[in-house]
Design brief:
Blueprint (H helix, E strand, L loop, with lengths): L2 H12 L1 H4 L2 E6 L7 E2 L5 E2 L1 H12 L3 E6 L3 H9 L5 E2 L7 H4 L3 E2 L4 E10 L2 H4 L1 H7 L2 H25 L10 H17 L11 H35 L13 E4 L3 H8 L5 E3 L2 H9 L5 E5 H11 L3 E3 L4 E6 L2 E2 L6 H11 L3 H11 L6
Parallel strand pairs: 1-4, 1-5, 8-9, 8-10
Antiparallel strand pairs: 2-3, 6-13, 7-10, 7-11, 7-12
Helix pairs in contact: 1-14, 3-14, 8-9, 8-10, 9-10
């Protein structure tokens, strides 16, 4: 027997009261943590982890499926099952009615949106109505007005286009300044005085640089906004139509953030509603959301942000007799090469997240 096996012997003995009967382990479809293969057998990160731990503790068990998160939570809290291995998040509300093992996976909430479409243009519109954009436009206008005023003052006695009525001359100066700044065409009625021509040369050269910098800044801002997506923080969810799975930890988070949402029984239901344009974003556990979108909804995408912090663990009824044994075995397993390979097999490059 290995050193690790000898070290686990006391905890295996502690779990023996439960090993005398067949445990009922609740689960629900939550790929890639719990799902059925082509033969109808359960597999996934949580399922494989439970099998690995149960084998070392000599536990007999069978899986029992529940349709929803709420049904699985109720089954654990009411003692209808002896454990739950799926993708259950540890929350304060759940901890009041059930027990949890050591967390085995840390994640957060992801946000799915449509690829393209009207919603995808919201970040662009947000940029054009942002304070920074308006500030840049007003700055350019102020400089154009200043140059136009100076041209009028320099030219009003030497150039008939800027003479006569003060308002007429001022408007002519500002118009020439705007045309010269934007390079919209050949600027008519150019300055004739030496100060006016010096100012005109300086302004035309400076305006080329100013416009180029302004356009580059706006292009960069638009690119960044499009890459970040319609949602960057929880605040952005308040201005769009949001969907979430009823009874999930996502609902608790949205409630604390005072964010309204449309409830759905299953993630697939919410993603179909998103695809149909009935909602603008769907919020759910990030790894589960990414898996479902990748497999079944290529028209959608998961934004590169993570909201909230979540921990997955095996759920147990209160006053159970095997939590300590499970914890010790889990802690040893989570540091093993087997666990690293299991995560990589299901999550690939996202296994380190």
């Amino acid at each position: 027997m290995t050193v690790v096996g000898l070290w686990l012997l006391p905890w295996v003995a502690q779990a023996q009261p439960a090993a005398g009967r067949e445990l009922v382990v609740g689960t629900r479809a939550a790929p890639p943590f719990a799902m059925k293969n082509a033969e109808g057998q359960w597999e996934g990160i949580s399922i494989d982890l439970w099998r690995h731990v149960a084998e070392r503790l000599n536990l007999r068990y069978r899986f029992e499926e529940r349709d929803t998160v709420a049904a699985l939570v109720d089954a654990v809290s009411n003692g209808q099952v002896d454990a739950a291995a799926a993708a259950l998040t540890v929350t304060a509300a759940r901890r009041q009615v059930m027990d949890f093992t050591q967390p085995f996976f840390s994640t957060g909430l992801g946000v799915a949106v449509g690829r393209g479409g009207a919603t995808a243009w919201l970040p662009v519109l947000r940029t054009f109505f942002s304070f920074g954009f308006l500030q840049g436009v007003l700055t350019l206008l102020a400089i154009a007005l200043l140059v136009g005023t100076l041209i009028w003052l320099f030219e009003r006695k030497q150039h008939e286009a800027y003479g006569g009525n003060a308002m007429r001359g001022f408007v002519a100066g500002v118009w020439w300044s705007a045309v010269a700044m934007t390079q919209a065409g050949a600027a008519q009625d150019g300055p004739r005085t030496l100060p006016g021509r010096i100012l005109a040369v300086v302004w035309m050269i400076a305006s080329v640089v100013t416009i180029a910098v302004f356009i580059a800044g706006i292009t960069s801002a638009l690119t960044t906004q499009r890459m970040q997506g319609v949602v960057r923080t929880a605040n952005d969810l308040r201005s769009i139509r949001v969907g979430a799975v009823a009874g999930s930890s996502t609902v608790e988070y949205l409630g604390m953030q005072r964010i309204g949402f449309q409830p759905y029984n299953l993630p697939a239901d919410g993603l179909r509603a998103l695809k149909a344009g009935q909602i603008d974003a769907f919020v759910y556990d990030r790894p589960l959301l990414a898996w479902t979108v990748q497999q079944d909804f290529p028209e959608l995408e998961v934004l590169p942000i993570t909201l909230d912090n979540q921990n997955y663990a095996i759920a147990l009824p209160l006053e159970n007799t095997i939590r300590v044994a499970l914890d010790v075995t889990l802690l040893a397993t989570l540091r093993s090469e087997w666990w690293q390979q299991t995560r990589f097999r299901y999550l690939g490059r996202d296994a380190s997240n």
